[in-house]
User: Fold this.
Amino acid sequence: MFLSILFDILLGILVVGTILVIIGDTGDSGRKIAWLLVITVLPVVGVVLYLCLGFNQRHHWLFRRRHKRYLDKLDREMDARMRELLFEDRNGLVEERYRPLARLLAHDAYLTPVGGNSLEIITTGHRKYELLLEDLRNARESIHMEYFHFGADLGSKAIREVLLQKAREGVKVRFINENVANFPISARYYDTMKKSGVEVVKFTNPRHHLVNFITRLNYRNHRKVVVIDGKIGYTGGMNINDHYFLTWRDTHLRITGGAVAQLQFIFMDSWLTAGGQLDRPLPAYFPEPSIPPEEAPLRDKVMQIVPDEPDDPLPVLQMSYVWGLANARDYFYIQTPYFVPPEPVMDALKTAAAGGVDVRVMLPEHVDTFFMGPANRSFYRECIEAGVRIFERKGEFIHSKTFVSDDYLSSIGTANLDPRSFSINYEDNAYIYDRETALL
Assistant:
């Protein structure tokens, strides 16, 4: 009897506490009401589901402390050269009309625009596979890699084999395993990497803290980042598996120049926050930017790599779409495989189109998951009535996450146009301020 009463009291405290947390959340009111209804009808199940799926990390200081290890190390070790490389105010490189966007994307002391970059826009998986393999084989000091999906098929194993070989040669290979998204892959797959000297950390590690693990189950590392010797970087929509290498249509970037340091900054944050170790002070991982002579004709692109994550107070990637649509004069073209625009983005799409801007959204005719096709199409009518033009691409599944506007602003990244990318996942997008790139 006593234990039953104690259980009821503890359950009541937990339910009331969860309700107070939801009420105190400064997020979307409709979302709050939905969770309150679930907990009212199913108290135990509702609380568990909220902790696993509904906890809004953006509005709780506790989750900002996850990055404390990285931020403390940054404060201790960052020298003047590294600070200039990452955070110097270079908004003058951007056309005046777009400087407010650059400042928005650099909020809270984040990464600023940087010039002197060379980039290749990759639109076939085969090209990425060839380029990445060659760059990995030529690595001399370090390989840093984080991917949402890293497969166990033929193409993925070929890349893994190069990582193993480079680790055996003495190159520092660091790999962040998005373990929840890749749970079907056996732990032995990663043990083999560790035995060859690859340093592997789990992005979501239950050993760190049980509450931390539970509340992070729904928060995935959706980034695709590679940094080689601190001098060559990759990011974009392509994961590592044969879907991307052989059958899907996607968009990715290979970068040399100052923007690589920004990808390194993002990787280091993920690495140290997940429990990884470093063998040198941070500035050693941020060499002076360099562009090989053969890539010189493509240099001088101004770029800004922007990380976003549920720990951040502002949903900057979502806000960049809203800003871009609100400030477009002639056109704003979007590619996304998943089209479930949050209300602010939906309003911005309709407002821009109704105001005479040529707003177009390209989506795949056939989606890789059965429920996303109907989900995408549920927004068509509302958009079309406001003047948004919707295009479904036939043929192979298009997985690109891009936009381009007014022959100047482009974005290529990891974020889909949906609430998960804008509110739940860890993402990164590259913003390119360059007319030549926009017109490609």
